[in-house]
Amino acid sequence: MARYRLLTLNNISARGLARLPQDLFSHAPDEPTPDAILVRSADMHALDIPGSVLAVGRAGAGTNNIPIDSLSARGVPVFNTPGANANAVKELVLAGMLLAVRNIAPALRFVEDLAETGDALDRRVEAGKKQYAGVELANRTLGIIGLGKIGSLVGDMAIKLGMHVVGFDPEITVDAAWSLPAQVRRANSIEELLRLSDFVSLHVPQIPATRHLMSRERLGLMNAQAVLLNFSREAIVDVDGVLEVLAARRLRAYVCDFPDERLRGQAGVLALPHLGASTSEAEENCAIMVADQIKAYLQHGNITNAVNFPAVVMPREAPFRVAIANANVPNMLGQISTVMAQSGLNIHNMLNKSRGEMAYTLVDVDSPVPAAVIDGLRSIEGVLSVRYLPAEA
Which of 246, 271, 296 is the endpoint of a domain? Predict the structure, then answer.
């Protein structure tokens, strides 16, 4: 019988599931008491999440379909896979730019409606193609808001196409800064970026602070021939504001990955059916990455790419490990150490990190941990969850 049971709320790539050894892991779409949940786009907000759940893994970057706050209160990490679908999104951004400025969609419709043949067809094509003339990308300026993995790849792609690139990201990480092409010019504000750009591509997460990041006021700062590309999240752009600037001919086009009834049939709008990560390669990459993260957490308590927990990875130096999630409050480490010391346990290694209101601790000890110690740790005020992880035979 498998030691760990997983509930799969969506189809997860077989290559990802293959990373989970069958003698230790089972997975099913109807598992009633899962240790972890694997999800792609399924909405979990109305789901009655079983108390057995120790972790949630999202095979993708966005986590707005997951009730993170309630899971955090239970000490349950939520993993995602930043960068796993980055190349797929990057390529779709390029397609979006070309669709907008080379008038590809209306040109295709023009050709589909042609009824002539022979010389008459040739004359009709020659006469009609003039209305679909576009502009080239080279020497145009692309503004990128959000310079994580996807934003960096988009910038690198644009530079190779001969474009100028300006970027803005006040929350850029050290790793992202290192991977950013040196030719990317830094904007001091979103407003400055909008004034400079012929194209603006959005690559930020959907959080309260980014809702309607592209507001009516900011949309009004864009070049009248500019193209706005949103392959991030729908709510980051004020759709009504977009329609206003398009109607006033103060924006060339809005290209997005999120159909909205307000956008249907509107001139200058190109809406795709959420294709950003819809490639076989991206789905496999996301599934492999999230499976590895869930496996590392369930077996060893290690945390990488959790949206609500700090990153904590500690190689095993002793066979007996305890993983503790707790509120980030003073003297927690002291209380944990005291409970263990009072039972005569020798702490071989300990790693503690915090992220906002959440803290997480891994403790390796040299001898088995009695159940009374685990109960004692759970009784500490502020402790959210405790897991005992002896090394597997």
Answer: 271
pTM flag (> 0.85): no
DSSP notation for 159-198: HHTT-EEEEE-TT--HHHHHHS-TTPEEPSSHHHHHHH-S
pLDDT > 60? residue 1: no
Q: What is the pLDDT of residue 206?
A: 87
Contact 169, 143 (CB under 8 A): no
Examine the domain organization and report whether 193 and 332 are in the same domain. no
Residue 172: which pLDDT band, with cuts at 50, 70 and 90?
Answer: confident
**pLDDT of amino acid 2:** 62
- DSSP, res 66: S
Q: Which residues pair with 315 in a beta bridge?
A: none
- Mean pLDDT for all residues in the chain: 95
18 vs 284: CA distance, rounded Å: 11
The answer to whether 75 touches 217, Cβ cutoff 8 Å, is no
Same domain, 174 and 225: yes
Does residue 44 sit in the same domain as residue 73? yes
Distances (CA, A) of 269 to 97, 111, 149, 209, 212: 12, 20, 26, 25, 18
- Where residue 19 falls (left for φ over 0; alpha for ψ -120 to 50; beta otherwise) is alpha
Q: Is residue 365 classed exposed, middle or buried when 0-12, 13-18 and 19+ CB atoms within 10 A define those classes?
A: buried
Q: Which domain holds residue 371?
A: 310-393
Mean pLDDT of 387-393: 84
* Whether residue 173 has pLDDT greater than 90: no
Structure token digits, residue 241: 């504001």
Domain boundary among 219, 244, 271: 271
Is the pLDDT score of 393 beyond 80? no
Strand partners, 352: 361
For residues 368 and 243, state if they share a domain: no
State the Cα–Cα distance between residues 280 and 258, nearest whole angstrom: 20
For residue 290, the domain's CATH number is 3.40.50.720
Q: Is the same domain home to 102 and 177?
A: yes
115 lies in the same domain as 64: no
